[in-house]
Inverse folding.
């Protein structure tokens, strides 16, 4: 393994990324060093590049979080990682590592904590493997944020329904898959071209969010299906108000619980009898590590083995490797629908 490797480095707030060399780090006791083969992009990556938000505590920085590659080295205390040389999916983010640039995804060798590293099944490509980490962590954290344990298993007799507003997004597709695995009746919204795909992922009913009466459509469907609808995940911007309009009618006398994944709106809409919480993993490091283990080693790894979890949405590979990351992030910023942008390293 080389002592140095190439990285797309964020030299200062406002970007752009610049490809240069970094020293290849040694993994700490609970860490895994990944030789990166594919990186998936998230809209938060463009926010960090362009605005330094969420906060980037150290410059030069290495941002990004989603990789698939090969296990290059394993820390001394790691017992749950894939073996050396094996194919792996990894959440390689500096966000919970005080901004440490050794941990960002946008480089050829990246550190990841072992709770966020699992084996990549042989049937999946590196590009498909890179789709999972942040989207899975975000989708599953939404449930625990509103007090729903990840091992929840509702039966059809429980009649529990959930509304996921923004199902065709990367996070939305895993929100649908995870809600289905918990036994919810899954209602979601998307453009009509994505409806059949979301049904394959487990959605029971998909609504066109652009129709003027979408709120009343959802309310009428919940009544017709005889379900209890008091839980929701707002995945995309602008989804909180229509979600609350639905829950106002469907929640009955109970408290509705809403997870909100976009950056919080200071003066956002509210609803009496609804708890609206910004979606985040636990802030306590020990609790967060346990949560990450449940997300990756239990839900994702077991779901991939059993075939109940599949890579989603479809991969869109952008050319240029690390040098092409600026252009790929600009493509993402311009807007994609039902796709996840990936670069090969």
């Amino acid at each position: 393994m080389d002592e140095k490797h190439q990285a797309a480095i964020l030299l200062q707030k406002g970007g752009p990324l610049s490809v240069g060399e970094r020293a290849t780090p040694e993994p700490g006791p609970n860490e895994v060093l990944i030789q990166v083969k594919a990186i998936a992009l998230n809209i938060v990556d463009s926010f960090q590049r362009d605005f330094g938000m969420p906060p980037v505590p150290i410059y030069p920085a290495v941002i990004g979080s989603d990789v698939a590659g090969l296990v290059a080295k394993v820390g001394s205390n790691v017992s749950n990682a894939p073996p050396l040389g094996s194919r792996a999916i990894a959440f390689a983010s500096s966000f919970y590592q005080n901004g440490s640039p050794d941990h960002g995804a946008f480089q050829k060798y990246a550190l990841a904590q072992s709770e966020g590293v699992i084996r990549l099944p042989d049937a999946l490509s590196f590009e498909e493997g890179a789709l999972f980490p942040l989207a899975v962590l975000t989708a599953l954290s939404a449930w625990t944020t509103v007090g729903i344990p990840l091992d929840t298993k509702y039966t059809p007799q429980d009649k529990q329904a959930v509304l996921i507003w923004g199902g065709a997004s990367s996070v939305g597709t895993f929100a649908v898959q995870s809600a289905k695995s918990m036994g919810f009746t899954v209602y979601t919204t998307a453009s009509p071209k994505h409806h059949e795909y979301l049904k394959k992922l487990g959605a029971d009913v998909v609504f066109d969010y652009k129709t003027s009466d979408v709120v009343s459509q959802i309310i009428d469907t919940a009544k017709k299906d005889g379900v209890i609808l008091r839980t929701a995940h707002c995945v995309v911007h602008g989804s909180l108000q229509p979600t609350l309009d639905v829950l106002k009618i469907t929640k009955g006398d109970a408290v509705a619980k809403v997870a909100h994944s976009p950056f919080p709106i200071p003066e956002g809409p509210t609803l009496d009898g609804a708890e609206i919480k910004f979606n985040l993993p636990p802030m306590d490091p020990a609790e967060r590590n346990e949560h990450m283990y449940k997300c990756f080693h239990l839900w994702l790894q077991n779901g991939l083995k059993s075939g109940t979890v599949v890579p989603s949405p479809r991969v869109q590979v952008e050319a240029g490797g690390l040098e092409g990351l600026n252009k790929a992030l600009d493509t993402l910023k311009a807007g994609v629908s039902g796709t996840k942008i990936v670069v090969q390293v």
